[in-house]
Every structure is written in C-alpha cells, then in structure tokens.
Design brief:
5-stranded parallel beta sheet, alpha/beta, Isoleucyl-tRNA Synthetase, Domain 1, Rossmann fold, 4-stranded antiparallel beta sheet, Gyrase A, domain 2, 21 helices
C-alpha cells in the first residue's frame, strides 16, 4: 500500500542515516518519492551532500525490505522509484470499496466549526468556515479517527440581547414565507437602528444580559426561543451545503453548570490576574499588550470566560481539540490558547481562514448588507440548471434539476475549499461552474466519464499488470490518495485534497485521450478497465470526502 511504502522508506532512511527526519517529499516527474536528508546531514558529517547521498543509496540498496524499489542518487537528492509489484498492489486496493480508509485510531477528536452568531442568516463569509470544517471532519473520519463535530451556540451575548429587545419592543410579525434566520436578521437590523436613535436602549440591553446570566427564567426562555428559531434556519442552509454537526453546544450551559465560575475562580488566583473594576489577565509574557477581560464591572462574565470553560470541558473529554475560526479571530484565538496554557489545560489547535467574498462587495449583518448563503445557493443552482440544460437538453426537467443541485453543491464547496485557508478568495461564478477546468463539476464529470466507460464495458476480468507509461502514471496518481488523507488531518489543510482530486481527474483525462479502453482487446482491455474502475472508485472516495456528490451521469 502507498501509505505503507512511505512509512517503510521513511523508517529505512532514519535507520540507515541516523537522521531524526527522513525529509521525504513527492518525487515529481523523476521519482515517486525523494529525500533531501543529505542536506541536513552535511554539517554533522562534514561532507558534501552529494557524497552523503551516494553513500546512503549504496546502503539502502542492500536492505531486503526495499527490494523492488529502484533507489538512485541524483546529485544531493535520493530518488525512490516503485516497481510493478507496487503498482499491482495499488490497483488491487483501489478497486475495493472504502479505498483510502486508514487504520482505526483511538485518539478522540473534537472539531468545532461555523458557530456563527444566531442573529441573521449565514452569509458567504460564514460558509467558508462551514466547508473547511466539514471537509476536515470527513477527512478525519476517513483517516479512522473517532470524531465529534460541534457547533458552539452563542445564546447570551450582546447581539442576542439586541434581538430579544427587538422582539419585545418592535413589530416582530414574521412575514409570509420568511425563513426563521432571515426574520431574526430583520429584527436585529431594525433594533440596531433604534439604538442609534436612542442611547437609552443600550441600558435596557445591558439589563437583559444581566438577567440572562443570573438565570431569570422568563428572560432565559426568550433568549433560547429566538436563538433556536435562528438555528432552525441555519440547519436548512447547512443541509443544502451537505454540512453536518453532531452536537450543538450552548454557551449558557457553562454558566448554568458552574464551569464558568470555576474557571474564573481559578484565574483570579493566578499572578497574571488583576481586578480594576473589571477582572482581566495580563498576557504580556505572551506578547499581548491589551487586557484580556474575563468579567465586566457589573459582575457579568464576558464571552472569553465562557469560551475558556467550553474549551476546558472539550479538553477533558477529547484528546485533540480543533477550532476553525476566521482571520478576525486571530487575536482572540491566540489569547485563548495562551490562557489555556496558563491554566494547564489542553491547548486547542486553530485553523484560521481568510475571507471569501463575492464581486458584489463586503458584508455586514448589523448594517443589513450581506449576501446570504441561501441566495448564493439559489443563484448557483439556477446557473447550474442552465448549464445542464445546454449540455443535456434531452433530459426531463426533474432530472436536470437533480443534476443541477449536485453540480451547484460541487461548484460552491470546491471553489471555496480549493484555496488554502490562509489566503482570501473571491467566489467566481463562471469558474466555479466550468466543466472544463479546475472546478468541482470538472472532477464530477471525470467521475461520470469513468462510470460511463464501466457501464458500456460489461463483464471483464480484473487485471493488475500494467505496462504503458500512461497506465503506470495514472496508477501512481491513484496511489497517492491515502497519503493525501493523512496529510490533510496532520496539517489541517483540506485544500490538499481538493488539489489532489483535480490532479487525478487531469491524469485520468490524459490517459483516456492517449489510451483506448473500450476498443482495446484481451488482456490490454482488462487491465485498462481495471484501471478505470480504480479511478472511478478513487474519484468517488475523494469527492465524498470533499462533501460533493459523486454523480454517475452529467
């Protein structure tokens, strides 16, 4: 297996060279894997990297466990080229259901993503969080980890208090056909406009915040009711995006169960704690100049205190804690990590992402300027339907709608996840729906082509003995899939999988262009059909891990 081969070579290099890191990288056009370990050993051995590489190759070639692997020194680089036996084993694995699944792990992982404030619909900026998080979740499950995906519900912050004030004091009648989260947003925007006119309303909002923290039953019910309604709207949007959460964890629970007060009491006893009307931490030892406020002067806790309690609870129940947060949360996230370290608690890993936008401009829920995710989904489905109609006019309307829904989902999810999280991106309608280039529908189309070939082929005998350059190149691309899954969960970079899926589709299309499949005969036909079956299965597993439908016809 590919992943086993990587581990085998990595171990062999470490044992032979004594290096702590084998420094294995993809070999590019000239090899399957390559090592730059000779560079790292040059200073220690006081020899030229070229000489070190040559000596290591001579020793590695003597190892019986590396038999069948061509090992050569190219200057200071050590190249590993896998033989036919490896390719055959890859094919045998890749035609089986669940290809790419890694061994079951015992490390319990909790992954939090989306967690948008429930004061209006999810917008284009939010869904990058959702898609990155959900893709990571799918990759962790494929990598064999027991996983829980959580949504942290902010049900007692100032924004929610403003929503509750609005429902208490303004005309809050729901309009016909108005989605719950859109209704909440309309009242929130109207309430903010009233606050701008009358500063006295701010005090009323403050009172609501004090009452909810103190557990006033009537106020708690009001907060819970409006937040629940907004979440109902979110769940519809998330379902349309094929995003799933296992648990919704409510912020207020950490007030009710006493965890927030316990964290505050622990922090108060620390040398970094100061009380000057507010309770705050001095985190200057971590490079932060501003105060990290834990409790307000009126005695109410701030979001940070409840977030610390939440993360302490996660750390006590899981082995690995991962958060997906926007770039605007970098300071908050870093302060959280530093404080968790001071507390002696498990420090969360944070995936920060830059924002996705539309050419139409920036978004703000408070100002009422945003493109909702629902609007984006509706528009992309319409455009997808028009594209499918152009390509498949013979299909009935319902069939075209079904394909368009899957294509639209692929367009959104792939276009957003294909860019590394730390880079901002603009969602490009035309590029996202381009069947001919780097898009989700392009990968779906390659999968559908493989399915079509298999359906036309009929019965054949699986053959794992490849010969041509194009055949072997395609098999070796298929072989990378398990290692890609491992890289995604280790590095927390889901765009690696998106890039791989597109490259596999590219390699398959090149193979299909140069090597006839259905017109071949005998053993050649059998081995090429086996290869197409492996491609179809690997594309299916890749697409599903990306949260995209692996449709069989387009």
């Amino acid at each position: 297996m590919p992943h086993d081969m990587f581990t085998l070579i990595e171990t062999a290099i470490k044992e032979t060279s004594g290096a702590a890191d084998a420094l294995l990288v993809p070999g590019g056009e000239h090899a399957d894997l390559a090592s730059t370990v000779a560079f790292s050993l040059a200073k220690q051995k006081r020899q030229a990297p070229v000489k070190i590489a040559q000596d290591l190759v001579a020793d590695l070639q003597k190892r019986p466990d590396l038999a069948g692997i061509a090992i050569e020194a190219k200057g200071p680089y050590i190249n590993f080229i896998f033989g036919n036996a490896y390719v055959s084993e890859v094919l045998k694995a890749a035609v089986r259901p669940g290809y790419g699944n890694l061994e079951k792990k015992t490390t319990r992982v909790v992954l939090e993503h989306t967690s948008a404030n429930p004061n209006g619909p999810l917008h284009v900026g939010h869904i990058r969080n959702s898609i990155i998080g959900d893709t990571l979740a799918r990759a962790f499950r494929k990598a064999g980890y027991p996983l829980e995906v959580q949504y942290y519900v902010n049900d007692m912050g100032r924004q929610i208090a403003i929503v509750v004030w609005g429902f208490d004091n303004l005309d809050s009648t729901q309009q016909p056909g108005e989605k719950e989260d859109a209704h909440i947003a309309r009242i929130y925007i109207a309430a903010n406009r009233e606050i701008e006119k009358d500063e006295g309303i701010t005090q009323q909002v403050n009172v609501l915040m004090q009452l909810v923290e103190n557990g006033d039953p009537a106020v708690v019910r009001k907060f819970r009711k409006e937040v629940s309604r907004c979440l109902d709207g979110f769940k519809v949007t998330l379902k349309d995006l094929n995003v799933v959460h296992d648990r919704f964890v409510w912020e207020s629970d950490f007030i009710r169960n006493g965890n927030t007060e316990r964290i505050i009491n622990k922090l108060k006893r620390m040398p970094q704690a100061h009380e000057d009307e507010t309770l705050y931490l001095d985190l200057s030892e971590f490079g932060f100049e501003n105060k990290y406020v834990i409790r307000r002067s009126d005695g109410t806790s701030v979001y940070a205190a409840r977030d610390l309690a939440f993360h302490a609870w996660k750390g006590a129940n899981f082995d690995r804690v991962i958060d997906v947060l926007g770039a605007d949360h970098k300071l908050i996230g870093a302060q959280l990590q530093s404080t968790m370290k001071l507390l002696g608690e498990k420090v969360p890993e944070i995936v920060h992402f830059e924002f996705v936008s539309l050419p139409e401009g920036s978004m703000s829920t408070r100002a009422g300027k945003f493109v909702s995710a629902d609007d984006l989904i509706t528009e992309i489905r319409k455009r997808a339907f028009d594209e499918v109609t152009t390509r498949r006019p013979e299909l009935d309307v319902e069939s075209r709608k079904a394909i368009a829904a899957s294509v639209g989902l692929a367009a959104i999810r792939y276009d957003i996840v294909k860019v590394s999280p730390e880079k901002s991106t603009v969602f490009d309608w035309k590029e996202a729906l381009d069947f001919e280039r780097q898009s989700g529908p392009y990968i779906q189309y390659a999968h559908a082509r493989a399915c079509s070939i298999m359906e036309k082929a009929g019965a054949f005998t699986e053959c794992y003995d490849l010969e041509s350059e194009q055949e072997i190149a395609l098999a070796k691309e298929i072989a990378k899939f398990p290692q890609v899954i491992e890289r995604v969960v280790v590095e927390l970079r889901p765009h690696i999988l998106a890039t791989y899926a597109r490259e596999l589709a590219d390699t398959f299309n090149t193979f299909y262009h140069f090597e006839p499949v259905l017109k071949s005969e005998g053993k050649i036909r059998d081995r090429r059909l086996t290869l197409v079956k492996a491609v179809q299965n690997t594309l299916k597993e890749s697409l599903e891990t990306l949260g995209i439908d692996a449709i069989r016809s387009m």
